[in-house]
Fold these 3 entries.
Entry 1:
Amino acid sequence: MKPVVHYSAIEGRSIAYWGLLGTFGLFLLLGLGAVWVMEHNGHYVTGMNNQVIWGLPHVFAVFMIIAASGILNVASIASVFGKKMYKPLSRLSALMAVAFLAGGLMVLMLDLGRPDRLVIAATYLNPKSVFAWNILLYPGFFGAVAVYIWFMMERRMNKYSHQIGLFAFVWRLLLTTGTGSIFGFVVARNGYDASILAPMFIIMSFGFGLAIYILSLMATCRWTGRELGDSVLRQLKNLLGVFIAAMFYFIFVFHLTSLYGTENHGFENFILADGGMFTQLFWIGWVLIGLVLPIAIVYHPSMSKSRTWIGIASAMVIIGGLASMYVIIIGGQVYPMPLFPGFEVSSSFGDGTIASYSPSIWELGLGIGGIALALAMTTFAIKVLPFIPNSLSDELMDPHYKPAEDVVEADAAETNAA
Amino acid sequence: MSEQKIDQYRRDFFTKATTAAATGAIAPGVMLMSVGQAQARPLDEPVSNKNRWGLLVDSNKCSDGCNACVTACETENGWGSGSTDEQKSDPDQKAQWIRTVTLKNKLTGSEHQLPMMCQHCEEPPCTDVCPTGASFKRADGIVLVDKHICIGCRYCMMACPYKARSFIHEELNDQSPDVPRGKGTVESCTLCVHKIDRGDGTTACAEACKKDGHQAIMFGDLNDPNSEISITMKKHATTQIRADLNLNTGVRYRGI
Amino acid sequence: MADSVGPELKINRANGDKCVLPADEMRKDHMKHLKHQRDETMHDGIRTKQFSLKECINCHANKDEADKYIPVNAPGEFCQSCHAYTSVKLDCFECHATKPRDTAFHPIVTDKMKAFADVHDAPETKSMLDTIAKKDGAK
């Protein structure tokens, strides 16, 4: 007989639980305080200016939005690709996907020059704008995932969870493509004008999302005393390794294709060689911390068995992810735009020079506030609804994974036909 | 004479009278209004694509160190030195609708300068990306921000290849009645739309450049084959900045 | 209006005794007209004066003892007092000037004449007309 996975809401009555929720709440409040300062005074209190137009808030927002769709991957692996082991992991995955999207959007919206005009953003839509597409994609994502969660939790609806899971999966691909295209469509800037940005964002979303998921799952199971089997974690970390390798590949191709066009040599040289802080962030933050070290840990014969190291590797992927966003978003802006080929240009408006940007505490506060919102939402939701399985022990999760029955049948049908 | 009357005269004049004799019969002032514009437009008539307003900048005539166009724009539109606002913003945060850019030839070392502003593209990237449609192109080719529906997302600034747009980083109080501007929205050169609509037939920058005796900036109707700007562009080679992007700019340059 | 309840309005009657529509219509509908005008001016370049916000300000701004304009959105002033009373919040004056600029008033014809003279370097009337006539003939 197959053991059955049971879910339950966590108890959430301990001081530690309220302390955790309180901490997230506090950071959220600090974030909102920072917003108040920014919006009351105007953006002059930030480090953003007319050269570096999108600053730290966008680094956080874009990171969280693409991570959100990546977090949903765990659920998709179960529902779309039929991997049984991932099924018990699905609910938390869907929940966190919604929470991170909400956090990211909060940051994005509150950094607007006129957040009071949000209604306008929803009512006047310019069909040509990638940004407007995204404004439609976000609520769609919320809706699809909410229904997905409902179908997973409601026994009567269980049988449709596969379909809605598929729908949510397709939607998330669109969402990440849309987010990537926000930058990809900016033809004017050397750093962005690459159709490869959209697929690269999808791969990055896989990696960031899974890293966030692994960390959260480990923390939840540990703090609620629920078992998390070694082989479950091993599968997850192996998958993380695959995603990191894929990110590696894409970054390599990205810069290679970029180097192919002469007009991009200046920009590539800036990022890869003499961009000061950006070069450091690229090599140390993005490549070393975000890719090389975690992949080494994840495949290291002994480290990869340690939960602490798996946790550290996941955290590194997240830090590397933030660094990569900084390099892409800010680095793409500080580098001067090519207006007059063959000329050295100068002006009172920073033409021909590397722009400067030093983020303010308010922008950082807003970004962290967004993450706090996502974590607070998750922490709260798992207390009120049964998102977390009572146990994720190896025994329960069926370590000797066998293909699903219907797949076997399909195979049989094929052999019959042949 | 009342406004309405003048309009009426203008309309009548253009529909009926085209002979020199009729010209003489009408008050000089009325006639004069119609000349700056290729076609006088009554106040209540919408703009149309009969016109496409543009500028031709001759960088050979642009005099080194001269900043007259920038100052004139500041005064006319109430930014920079033309206003007491934006004291808290740092230099990188202050609005800049027009700027002079100095070009130094990498091979020969020769230097010259030219003014840069919104290039009033026919295919403006800013309007493509704007989520609300606040960035738009008027029928007569002027690219504007409808600040009433601008949410301050600044995607247009990211998309603009010319860095022509500015975001307002603080509260303002000293605006010109003709040029409303305010915190949290994006703005750029309007091609002095309020002057064009008024029938001035020129922009502040072109006016100032002419007054200083350089005549490096010419304003006119690119759709009118007989306008000075069209004739000049037919005679001389002109360039668009970032022509590779195929935006068909309304601001053209000579002598880059 | 005698029967109207509301704040005591400081109405500037220096430019005549009438608003652009009868006062009770204005009281009821000015926001509608302004918003309509806003879109027409912005997108179609329609510059009729009747419902132009700039013109409201030109006419409704009061002057202080020193003969200086007071912003229309200052406490107790025309637009503000009424909106404060009805607790309506406007963002218009974040951007729109709240008082006429002393230099803002150009008699319309002379402005055009000056503009013409600047552009075409032409002296006064007679020769200007000749130039125009010549241009017309050339077409």
Entry 2:
Amino acid sequence: MELLDLAFYTERVIPKLNEGLIESLWLIIPASLIGGSFGVLMGVLRVFGTKWIKKIADTFVAVIRGVPLTIQLMILYFGLPYLPFVKIFLTPYQAALIGFIFCTGAYQSEYIRGALLSIKQGQIKAGQALGMTKLQIIWSVIIPQAFRKAIPGCGNEIIYLIKYSSLAYIVTHIELTGEAKILVSRTFRPTEIYLLAGCYYLFLVTLATWILHALERKLYIPGFGKANS
Amino acid sequence: MTTLLSVKNISVTLGNRKILDNVSLDMHAGDLKVLIGPSGAGKSTLLQCINHLITPDEGEIHLEGKKINTQSNAELCHLRQNVGMIFQDFNLFDHLTALDNICLALVKVRKLSKDEAQKRARKELDRVGLSNRAGLYPAQLSGGQKQRVAIARALAMQPKILLLDEPTSALDPELVGEVMNVIQDLAKGGMPMIMATHQMDFVRSLATEVLFMEHGTIIEQDTPKVLLADGAKTRTLDFCSKLNNLKGCEL
Ligand SMILES: Nc1ncnc2c1ncn2[C@@H]1O[C@H](COP(=O)(O)OP(=O)(O)OP(=O)(O)O)[C@@H](O)[C@H]1O
Ligand SMILES: [Mg+2]
């Protein structure tokens, strides 16, 4: 039976997929950390910024959310070198990473914005009435609450990011999906290879879900965030 | 008698409407002033101007004879530490236990150590009868308990004056008593207070002065004995009897 040809997997498929996995992680981890911070910044600006800052940030998010990621990646990698005045050349890795950071940041900012808006304003007054400074209130009241409210949404976005990181092959950056494609073209055994690559992603998503749930459990507060608390 | 706090000629304008129009009042030791008046009269606005949660367009606040420079954050902070505030809808910090709600400002503003803060917080919780609820979160407390935690939180800062904005009007009727008892004890203990309330038996028995507000000004100002005397021709009595007919409770 071909499917059970163990040497084929251990010698040819798994080492290559593992290489691809490392490349994928090199995209996913920085993109989620930098993109996450970028999203927090954008979310905060969209809520607390001046009128013009809000407008600019809102527009940026609307554009990123309105254009397919595939197109954005192609613009970054294939389009930028042909700009009329400054030609920008990005490596495949840079193009993919920048595309993912913008994309995940824009979506994360939506969740952060929602979380910030849902904090009951009376608590800010209460903090001020106790003599706390704006900064103390933001740090000790707003952020801990907004963070908890944003976790489910932001976690979901990280899970999407894990999966759309496979689009990096569009700009010729070879990660997990890219390695799988190359293997298939060499071995003509798409079924097993794509199934196995799928399992790699499933594993990553499961791991991320588990970490997020652990975080949620650790930060759990009875009744917090329920409509009637 | 030393003046604890003076509010001098405060005005607040929103658009072209005067929400507060040239309001003044003085607080001395032992004063318990009650604000009464129809909805929209400006009671909440006045209370929030006193500790500058709302910045008035004109007027001054003096604390113990010293004018507060509202441009200075340090002076604002000093004012707010000395003037505690209780809100209608409690405004507890949702992510903190009852105990930590009290400790937060003790640590951040009063700069107490965590241990000292907890010790004081427990004492205050005990005073409002909630020592056995220290570890519960706001969502696990009843409205009356939440308001008592809010009172403990304000008292822990050891304010010289307490402002209370309709502290029982968001509560179910059966929970009003437990909160009013705490406030009554404070009043009897001599805590100076300015309180917006329609709890008339409290006003009659403990208020040293009633301020009747309408359209952003104080239009009547005297002891409850005078303003609420049987047959008195005052706006205050008129308003309160209407309120009573509406609610059907004793005056
Ligand atoms: N943020 C605001 N924007 C516009 N108008 C406001 C604002 N806050 C208060 N007002 C207006 O100011 C007036 C005074 O309001 P305030 O809340 O001080 O009245 P109040 O006497 O406390 O009434 P209530 O008994 O309903 O609490 C009202 O007419 C209200 O509509
Ligand atoms: Mg009010």
Entry 3:
Amino acid sequence: MSEQAISSSLSIGRTELEDFLYEEAALLDKWQLVQWLTLFVEGAKYWVPPAGSADDVDPATTLFYIADDYFRLTERVKRLGKKTAHVEFPKSKLRHLVTNVRILGGNDDLFEATSNFVTYRSKSGATETYLGHHLYDLCVLDGEIKILKKTSIIDTDNINEQGKVSIII
Amino acid sequence: MSSVKAETIVEPFIIENESKAIFRVNRRVFVDEEIRQREIRHIFDTCWIYIGHESELPNPGDFLTRKVGGRELIFVRSKDNVVRSFFNTCPHRGAMVCREKHGNDKMFMCMYHAWSFDLAGKLISRPEGERYHADNSGGLHDLAPVANLDSYRGLYFVNFDPNAVDLNTYLAGAKEYIDLTIDQSEFGMEIVGGVQEYGFEANWKLLVENSCDGYHGGPTHATYFDYLMARPGQLSDPGTKVNLPRDLGNGHAVIEYGGPWGRPVAKPVDAWGEQGKVDCAELLAKLEARFDKEYAHRIAYHNFNMSIFPNLVINNIMAITFRTFYPEAANKQHVRAWALAPKEESEIMRERRLYNFLEFLGPGGLATPDDCEALKMCQKGYQNAAFAGWNDISKGMGENQQRNTDEEQMRVFWREWDRRMSGAAL
Ligand code: FES
Ligand SMILES: [Fe+2]
């Protein structure tokens, strides 16, 4: 879609989206997950398909790592705030890098965007690296960008080294 | 004893004293590379090892490649509809012949010098074949098959030992629980949506223990139970009072019990709404039509966690998972996990099943990552093995009645492990 077509139906541009995504990454780096959850609309989805998946992968037919509806995403956030979420206690150190931000098309009601990511998780003397790309379904609500669906695709062959997806990548 | 001697294998691996209710496992068995080498020879090279499910190869020509029991294998349904398994290595100079994870093809061609093989492993052609004069009637230039490949109710196992007992004998009492799993379906079970693969730094035997450990649920999975409570409506009635750890023979063991979650066959939970109750009643009626009531209810309501010696776990809980694992090193394992479901399952039930699966299981579940963390912490603790050298697996010893929260099911594994490590075959 050309810049023209985007701007005619979408009230924000790439710079605004970048600000939004950097803000999201900052919240994740700081483990401010309750606040991070407010970036989503109620009813939003959060998906992490198996490493190396194609973009059109579907949790109805493929065994994902994470296929949260809004309820479970809320519970995931609550869980990660507890001491009894053992895998993330003490909390790992995180650094989320976001690049290659592109708006793929749509309007204020629904637009798609993508970014590439590298996320580092460091704990107990080991640093794990997740790399891949995010796919977003977004909307503009009262002038603010909100997430309808976020899919994080890990672009490595497997997660043998990381062993888990215990953080929000 | 010299200091050099202290670095070699230290026995005993296990101390059991029935009358004193003592059962201890030497922590060296989790850290010692020499012991891992012995495990490969005495366990992984002689036991029946799970390779895959029949539904993964539905059509002639379907193949997949998989590292099983530490060996790179090809698992294929040949043109004659026979399922076969070969070592994935070229009889010429050894390159891996098949480099795809899965596919459907007429033949395999080695990339190095282009020898090609049919799906039954026979050499079809090679460039400048006229320069070879050796007789291939003994299969000298064919793909090497594994010594044994056999299946039970759609589960395929390999065995690298030509002198092994047959699979049926080997599985012993485990067959009862495989039956309970497969009998859910009138038309056969299938693997759903591929495989979860992950690794973590803990000895493989810790996952055997963990997979049928009723003792750790409360503390390790507190957040999972918080989550269950947060779901709308009541928890599901367990539907059974059974609480039974069982020795299934040959090192296989199971714990059988009721649970507070919904089971897609055929136990509803409030969170599934009224329709969930209707759907489950329908499924239960079908089971009751096919089996006597007691068996039908066992299929519907009973959870079990079973470990089939050495490295297959079948958990039939809020969903069904098959899990295999292999020691890449003494302190590192590679895990593969699948979800299994009835072929005829409705779309909505399948959705509930996968939702159930992911809420507990796998690398992004609300429970499995905490299990892995616990096992990693054990492995780290064993760095102290030279000075704090023993695990205690004695819970329930001296009691008349064993419970799932006791440790008898683990002792079953350890006795067989110890027996085989001393060189005894089945
Ligand atoms: S190694 Fe396979 S053809 Fe030479
Ligand atoms: Fe567990």
